[in-house]
Write a structure and sequence with these properties.
With 189 residues, this protein is mainly alpha-helical. The protein has nine helices and five strands, in the order H-H-E-E-H-H-H-H-E-H-H-E-E-H. A three-stranded antiparallel sheet has the order 1-2-3, covered by helices on one side. Strands 4-5 form a two-stranded antiparallel ribbon. The longest helix has 12 residues. It is elongated and about 75 Å long.
Length: 189
């Protein structure tokens, strides 16, 4: 599985919504147990730090020229969480998200600029992996729409979508027959 594929599947309702109406979803929270693993505002954009283990946080604080912030245990990190957040918030504002991504990745610190939904979907990786499927039409829907397929592939292929989603109740008779019931009349509530 590719991590990008998994991320897209985990956000499938947001992906489908964006692809249908073009509205970017908004972030809803970002509190991680360790301060060095989270999203931070920069001069322009947001950068996501992924220095989640002790080795990575040591590397991050070293490249930020703050060796005094390096912790030897996760308990030390937990105890200093608020101070670390405040320090990182201040430091991250000194460059843009693009600059931080380039700087930190070149020094083997996990970090990336947070992309908009449109940027993530437009990434060439999406097309090469076939994560997004486009329906030219849907039952009861006007216009084309796209949906994520799956986050995994097999050597012989992988999941695929052959038909658009059914309309509400479209397969009721077949489901009831499988369960041993006869045809049902639609009830009005």
């Amino acid at each position: 599985m590719a991590m990008l594929d998994v991320a897209m599947i985990l956000m499938s309702s947001h992906v489908t919504g964006y692809l249908r109406n073009g509205v970017h979803p908004k972030p809803h929270g970002n509190r991680h147990p360790h301060a060095t693993n989270g999203a931070f505002e920069t001069k322009a954009g947001v950068v996501m730090l992924g220095a989640s283990n002790l080795r990575q946080q040591r590397r991050l604080w070293t490249v930020l020229e703050r060796p005094d912030m390096i912790k030897r245990t996760n308990d030390e990190r937990d105890a200093d969480h608020d101070r670390e957040i405040a320090m990182l918030e201040e430091i991250m504002l000194t460059r843009t998200a693009d600059e931080w991504e380039e700087f930190l990745q070149a020094r083997h610190v996990p970090a990336a600029r947070v992309r908009s939904m449109g940027e993530a979907i437009a990434d060439p990786q999406q097309a090469s992996r076939g994560v997004i499927h486009r329906h030219e039409r849907g039952n009861g829907m006007e216009g084309a729409f796209s949906v994520p397929v799956a986050a995994f592939k097999f050597a012989h292929g992988g999941p695929r979508i052959d038909t658009p989603p059914p309309t509400l109740g479209q397969h009721n008779d077949e489901v009831f027959a499988e369960l041993g019931y006869g045809k049902r009349k639609a009830s009005v509530a």
